[in-house]
């Protein structure tokens, strides 16, 4: 309770110190957060600071989006020109209100975002909603795989998808081909079929590595632990999708801080106010690289420093367009 009070006080102070110069040029912004995690709260505070948001509200106070007075002490406005939702639950609750206001969804993974958009029968081409995905970009993950496993041979990479994520298969295969990587895909119903799928990936020949795509149907703490343990003993590196998966035994991934997401959301807001259009959903372009040098070393993989990895990554992506 004490922590919650401190966070609210911090948010109020941040808004009180904000000037209206950014809002005057870009219009009013409503940031709708759920406060579900420290990351979500940090993102919301940082974005409200960056864009001088006049309304930063919780999902429990969505009524404030209808009648907000810019002169009131609570910094309310009549109607925001853009809503930024923080997390999946905030996105769903804003969509339920049918406010007909452009939405930028932040801190939501691609699969839950696309499932939500489909559930509300929204036309992706209408450009009324966009997102900055919380997941690592498969393009960057594949580039890191190519760097770490060498550039002198064609690689075979295995991945496992469910009915939720199978629509990503053509895109990931196309991206993999650009890096001279063959992608073997196993589709399963849920985690119960995970180890059968892993065995199938290695028939008739073992894959060089396994790429994990975030999918709650397949991956949880238990299934990830057993998968990493199995792949370690079979001497096959795993490309993870979060720092916690790297800590558990995968060798590399990208990670995004609340500040990364906030800056990219601020840039999208500015772009929308200048053009009147929302871009298509995208993966965050700013990131840190997270590695597990100990696991890499035990698999005879040379792990450069993160600075060297970033340098080599920037060179590689310049030559291989997504």
Q: What does this molecule look like?
A:
The protein has helices at residues 2-17, 21-26, 38-51, 88-97, 110-119, 138-149, 169-178, 194-201, 221-233, 243-248, 258-275, 293-298, 306-319; strands at 29-33, 55-58, 82-86, 103-108, 129-133, 155-162, 181-188, 209-211, 238-239, 252-255, 282-283, 288-291. With 322 residues, the chain is α/β, with parallel strands linked by helices. The protein has two domains: 2-134 and 258-283, NAD(P)-binding Rossmann-like Domain (Rossmann fold, 3-Layer(aba) Sandwich); 138-255 and 292-319, 3-Layer(aba) Sandwich (Rossmann fold), CATH 3.40.50.2300. The strands form three sheets. Strands 2-1-3-4-5-11 form a six-stranded parallel beta sheet, sandwiched between helices. Strands 7-6-8-9 form a four-stranded parallel beta sheet, with helices on both faces. Helix 1 (2-17) runs parallel beside helix 3, helix 3 (38-51) packs parallel to helix 11 (258-275) and helix 6 packs across helix 13 (306-319). The longest helix has 18 residues, at 258-275.
Roughly what is the average pLDDT, rounded to an integer?
85
How many H/I helical runs? 13
Shape: globular
Structural class designation: alpha/beta
Radius of gyration: 21 Å
Number of domains: 2
Question: CATH architecture of the largest domain, please?
Answer: 3-Layer(aba) Sandwich
CATH homologous superfamily placement of the largest domain = NAD(P)-binding Rossmann-like Domain
How far the N terminus sits from the C terminus, by CA atoms, comes to: 46 Å
What is the name of the CATH class of the largest domain?
Answer: Alpha Beta
Strand order of the largest sheet: 2-1-3-4-5-11
For this structure, the CATH topology of the largest domain is Rossmann fold
DSSP helix fraction: 40-55%
Strand content: 15-25%
Number of strands: 12
Largest sheet: 6 strands, parallel
Low-confidence stretches: 1-26, 67-77
Order of helices and strands: HHEHEEHEHEHEHEHEHEHEHEEHH
